[in-house]
Amino acid sequence: MSARRRGSMVQRGLNRWLLRVYLGQSSSGTNRYSSKVFEGSTAEARQALTAMLREIDTKTFVEPTKERLDAYLESWLAGKIDVAPRTLVSYRRMLGYFLPQLGHRKLHEIDRSHVQAVLNEMTSQGLSRRTLEYAKAVLHGAFTDAIQDNRLVKNPADYLKLPPRVKRAPTVLSLAQVGALLEATQADSFHCLWTLLLTTGLRPQEALALKWSDLDLDGSWLSVRRTLADDGHGKASLVESTKTDGSTRRIGLPSSTVATLRVYKARQSAEILKAGTRYARLDLVFSSSVGTPLDHNLVRRAWKATIKKAGLPAVRLYDARHSHLTALLANGADIAWVAARAGHADIKMTQMFYAHVMPETHRSMGEMTERLMQNARKS
After folding, report:
1. Which of 67, 87, 97, 206 is 20–30 Å from 76 (CA)?
2. What is the model's pLDDT at position 4?
3. Last residue of some domain: 281, 313, 345?
4. Residues 111 and 76 occupy one common structural domain
5. Is the residue at 62 inside a domain?
6. Sheet harboring 221-224: ordered strands across?
7. 379 lies in which domain range?
8. How confident is the model at residue 369 (pLDDT cuts 50, 70, 90)?
């Protein structure tokens, strides 16, 4: 078939063209064609048609379908059987940033400018660079799989621009400030939660997903088995870890925290009896008045109000974790054990997050060495 018959350009308006290419014959013997609307000059339209023909020759041409992005992403998520449930929840949340603007578009119509526009809007909303990077990575992965399935030719999430990385100065509470906060909140309904966060380094979502069966108060241990996942639309769910029992993260509890938990449990048991059948018996350590998971946003607002009332620096709820882990490192704790307590994948992550503490840690180890040497001379 001649080049003229293999492809054609039909003008449909000012700088608007219908490009049509021949794809060969179907199994029934009928001719197959693919068409798309192109906007641009005559020369640009001719180049686009030539590019389509070249893709057909090199067998890289992807025939456009009517599949929308929202439908594709839903099927993509359903096929991610190799990831942990809580990871899948986070994927869905990240993709949710793109769906309002792009979900209705056909998969093959989405280009880099569309994705960049969403990232720009996310930036204007004040979302962190880390959130932008994660959202971009998840969408890029979905598009990469679409290319492998021959649904796309190129990845619309390639070569995107993100705002410059701003390194936030670490904000933590000192041990004296931690003591002051816990003293000031003795009568606070969240006192036990604040105590646990500030003395274990748990992530807030891990603490809010704890069950009493995860705690061994006699042995002064707790096990991290799940997290409270928020879908970004106000709906929270408990997501179990896929780890084996042998690799479940265990965290030792200080005796004062154990004592606080015992008092709190006795008070909660009385409230459960009072609520009767209205109480959802999920065995949660921290729950609403009817036993359901606490709203993470409510807890964050309560923390903010508590910090302000106590006259302490405006640290985030998540910084309760940083405060604890920073205190351990600053007082000479082994970084490998701190990494295990934090639940970091490897020690490098701990070193990256807490690099600001390491000089003080090395100084304390120098002082420790001096004491050892002095004791050796005396003996």
Report:
1. 206
2. 47
3. 313
4. yes
5. no
6. 215-216, 221-224, 249-252
7. 331-379
8. confident
